[in-house]
Amino acid sequence: MINFQNVINDIHNNLKSSENRGVVASYIPELEKQSAKSFGIFLKPINGENCHVGDWNTPFSIQSISKVLALSKAIVFENNKVWQRVDVEPSGNPFNHLSLLELEKGIPRNPLINAGAIVIADILVTHLKHPKQDFLDYVRNIAGDHTINYNLDVAKSEQNTGFKNFAAAHLLKSFKNLNNDVDTVLDFYFHQCALELNCKQLANAFYLFANAGKCINNKQHLSLIQVKRINAIMLTCGFYDEAGEFAFEVGLPGKSGVGGGIVALLPSNFVIVTWSPGLNAKGNSLLGMQALEQFTTKTKRSIF
Hints:
By secondary structure, the chain is an alpha+beta fold. 45% of the residues lie in helices and 12% in strands.
């Protein structure tokens, strides 16, 4: 029987004094305020006691991790019709590149790059009566925590600096792959990315992807086939042009965000979340990637 608390304690001790902690994201000015010294880990088993260490209880901007949650809601509305508007292939490019979008006639490579996530946002704006509030309520419900909220300062900061997202949205609109007004869709998208959760709340929110579509309150939100699809996309596309490296080193479906969070899971076993704001050259948390590699190596728990 593995003592997971001892494992994550060891990993935290191994990494917490690392001199190379990466670089905190600065292209969204509000994110630059985070301390590179922050580092937390939270593990939520499907059966068993939660384990945590470090700064697991500090809220942070989940950024692109929110794309998985948005996708899970869009699939409920449109199921397989989603894949007519976004593909499921790894991009091999950074999250905000636009070259493939024009080459492939406005169909984003996958729903976890920015262009793909903007299409998913468009679907939610179409179906939700009050998109921002309704999506927030969805995240609160699956996480079982009604204290979760948007960080409005981060949302505004993204709005003021999101020039490539505006470019992507207008390009999508030119190919008729955006049904709503560009400003309306991006306002939702910027708020979506500005969701603020701590490691525990994020693990709770992602519990349904490890638990056959049932959230922590045992309510069925997704079918088994929908969970299978989402987990597959996380494995192949969750880390942009470092997705292959994450599969190679860690071997779990997962998703990163430029706020320094990473969530990963082993179906029917656990969800694990790390947070360390310093990013590597690919835009993924440097210590988070190292922590998860050590975790699956020490526990021998991965999908491979």
